[in-house]
Amino acid sequence: MKTIIEPFKIKSVEPIKFTTLEEREAILERGFYNLFLIPAEDVLIDLLTDSGTSAMSADQWAGIMRGDESYAGARSFYRFEEKVRALTGFRHIIPTHQGRAAEKILFSIAGGKGKYIPNNSHFDTTRANVEFSGAEAVDLPCDEGKDPDTPADFKGNMDLEGLARFIRNIGRANIPLCMMTVTNNSGGGQPVSMANIKATRELCGRNGIPLFLDACRFAENAYFIKRREPGFAERSVESIAREMFSYADGATMSAKKDALVNMGGFLALNDDALALRARNILIVTEGFPTYGGLAGRDLEAIAQGLDEIVDEHYLEYRIRSVEYLGERLVKAGVPILQPPGGHAISLNARKFLPHIPVDQYPGQALSLELFRVGGIRSAEIGSVMFGRYDRDKKLIPARMELVRLAIPRRVYTQSHIDYVIEAVLEVYREREKLRGVRIVEEAPLLRHFTAKFEKVV
Questions:
Q1: What domains are there in the chain, each with its CATH number?
Q2: Can you list the alpha helix ranges (DSSP code H) found in 140-295?
Q3: pTM higher than 0.85 for the full model?
Q4: 30-41 pLDDT tens trace
Q5: How far apart are CA 288 and CA 246, in angstroms?
């Protein structure tokens, strides 16, 4: 097999800043040992997130110049609406400035005290918007998805038996909608099978519960279906994506992921009454329904990005480059969530640092050391992000302690990834010297963004 190369040429470059070990130690101290609180210019390789960090194409930049900035009825909106509707099949296409704004609108209407929102796994902002409304976010991942060491083709699947039992126990009247996150971000970027999406739809349909997709990484999920699920190998990724959306009653999307843009999102649905209420909230919080908090140039870039993301040469390169990182780490004995996800590699911090107790946050300690050693910014996806407290203020840890290395789209080359591998291996060799951290200040919601830490001596 020939080497899978980047299906693009590099036309513009941005310099990155090199720092010394001593400088990085000072940067961490000034940032209260939280990688969200350090300046981006001090980061060498930024794998904090793949959200809004893509490199846009020449055609997207051309679209930015074509953007119609009219307040109402801009032609850029109609191009955006046409593309999203053709892809998803939904009647109502409501632009928002990013995915969490779509979530905020949806759960302001559907949420509320006494309501429950099941999901294969909520990610951070989705959970926060559900809970801010007064509702309860409930994760129902499949059994394989709970074990980071077990390889399986579709570890992002919904636990169908668990969902059926949950509906019986809670009652349909208390479940305004069910969500599926594709790919399953909290579960390590693992895909959801078409069979599981269809079965979830049938179960929800029998109980009169609408199904919504959190579709941030729909194209990566569709490509995994093409590669792994019988009967889809000869199908186009675009047609697979359309089928995925056909089983849903609506979708939220952060276009900052699989639409290859730096800002934007949408809420898409079929229910006329729900759409009317959503647009009313949009006008109050985001803007007129034909721009929804976005400039016309952003709408143009999203429409073009949705064309480019379903290119199968790009998706082959994208998935293979992430697999490459995972395979090299596994070969060296580094514990990761298996198999590699679509947008990220997740280091298994619990196995990487077994000597650090969970209440000293091994994932946070590992992410800090990756920055200290190599200037690499990653994200803790563990008990800092998803941990809770019981009534006695004792930590209820997250199901998994992960450190996510999220790969921005069309940004880094193989040499950058090889550097990341070298840095991870250096940390792994010295892992027994690492110590944990404790939280000294935190917010009640989404604490990982702003929490302050200190080292445990």
A1: 21-50+311-455 (3.90.1150.10), 58-308 (3.40.640.10)
A2: 160-170, 194-206, 218-228, 237-246, 272-285
A3: yes
A4: 999 999 999 999
A5: 28
